[in-house]
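[Q] Does anyone have a clean structure-token version of this?
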Amino acid sequence: MSNKRIVFEGSATAVATPFRNGAVDYEALGRMIDFQIEGGIKALLFCGTTGESSTMPDEEHMAVIRFGIEKTNGRVPVIANTGSNDTAHAIELSRLAEKAGADALLSVAPYYNKSTQRGLVAHFTAISKSVGLPIILYNVPARTVVNIDAPTIIELSGLPNIVGVKECNIFQTAEVILNTPGDFSVYSGCDDEVLQFMSLGARGLISVMSNIIPDRTQRITESYLTGRTSSAMNEFYSIYPLIKALGLETNPIPIKKALMFMGMATGDVRLPLVEMSGEHSEKLHFEMKNLGLV
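[A] Here you go.
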């Protein structure tokens, strides 16, 4: 009988890491965390794709996770991204995050290596055995070049502490939900597909847009989970132009520009990412102004 921990239901924020002059701006990060929790968000993910973990040395990566845990102070669950394309490295980061007090881990499919599905099973099984924390898989083939196929997710769901998946491949979501335990959580990894995912049975969303609109993002998922689908749809379509504007360039470039427009952070990104173009910035600012965000 399955007895998996449900880390959260509703909306979680993949928190952007604010930089100032090349270093983490912890003062801004603290403000952002309070803003998220006050907005009703149900969990916070640190050092994911939106957090630019790919350009963060391990010491800095872990410092941000520790700060997030301390600042959050148990108000909502903290999910630490500890994925890597090197299994040993992923295990090391996972153990450090567990020791730091994270509530759960996010573990992305190994990128660049182009692992086979058997390799993915071996990779995630090794991580699972190394820690006691609940683990959410992260399937984002547009970035990793490899898909965690539905049969692989289904097999991994048999491990006691692999409790869910942040899924960006909606085409396999129904198969995953149908063939995994009822307490295995599927979360949309795409803001613009949240309604489709939830209509299939997803438990919520791990969001980028919630960095600037945590309250509205949470209202979408909460409305859907409580059967108020019309309210969820109305809220979603009211912000859809903003969602599209946040997709004009590679994440997290637009969301960091949006945070700058709101006066919450500088908007700095690390190379090889560069500042949002003028034309796209104007479009983003226009949509934010329409929603009263600036």
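[Q] Thanks! Anything notable?
[A] The mean pLDDT is 97.
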